[in-house]
Design a protein that fits this description.
Layout: E1 2-6, H1 11-22, E2 27-31, H2 42-47, E3 55-57, E4 63-65, H3 67-75, H4 85-115, H5 123-144, H6 157-166, H7 180-190
Parallel strand pairs: 1-2
Antiparallel strand pairs: 1-3, 3-4
Helix pairs in contact: 1-3, 1-6, 4-5, 4-6, 5-7
């Protein structure tokens, strides 16, 4: 049985939880006190020297960090990862987009407001993240305006990766009202079999 070392309110950790649930793979959850410094402990750093959640524990001695790498590992041979090579590459394209363009804006805005309490000294940064998030969402909106899902008209880990922080964008004061295709896609993801909520 897998063990997930994570933070329940983290979008990166939620991706792993949702994937495991939808693949009906049994797992145990170990809540990590990230804000209390647990990710810097020797025990945690032995699992992931980068000191980040989530970490998927595969065995007593085998650990896999990085949320999208975990999704890739879990989804192999399942309906959540396509068989076609081009579609596989397109899934990876969106996983890279999520980590390079999406997560640094939407997730950070959410962190500043939802976890850090919107401190005055980070207000300028927050407003910049909100503006940048709108550009990211426009890319998603354009793509989804002609598609139901991100790759091959089938639900995949590309959707899971992008869903995690997008569906909590309001917690970072990001307005999804101007993005109807994105909002429709969020509803489709939430209606998938095996769907579980964050937390």
């Amino acid at each position: 049985m897998y063990t997930v070392h994570g933070v329940a309110q983290s979008g990166n950790c939620y991706k792993v939880k949702l994937t495991l649930a939808q693949l009906e793979k049994p797992f145990t959850w170990n809540e990590v006190d990230m804000m209390g410094g647990a990710t810097r402990s020797p025990e945690f750093l032995a699992m992931n020297p980068a000191g980040q959640v989530p970490v998927l524990q595969i065995s007593a001695t085998s650990f896999l960090p990085q949320s999208n790498a975990i999704l890739y590992y879990l989804a192999q041979g399942s309906t959540l990862f396509p068989e076609d090579r081009l579609e596989q590459a397109q899934v990876m394209q969106w996983l890279f987009f999520e980590q390079y363009s999406h997560e640094p804006q939407i997730a950070v805005a959410r962190f500043i407001v939802h976890f850090a309490g919107r401190p005055a000294e980070r207000e300028a940064e927050l407003q910049q993240k909100i503006r940048n998030s709108e550009s990211v969402l426009r890319v998603m909106e354009q793509h989804l305006s002609e598609r139901r899902y991100f790759v091959g008209e089938r639900y995949s880990i590309a959707d899971i990766a992008l869903y995690a922080y997008t569906h909590k964008a309001h917690e970072g004061l990001i307005d999804l009202e101007p993005f109807p295709a994105v909002r429709g896609w969020l509803e489709r993801v939430a209606s998938q079999p095996g769907y579980v909520e964050m937390g």
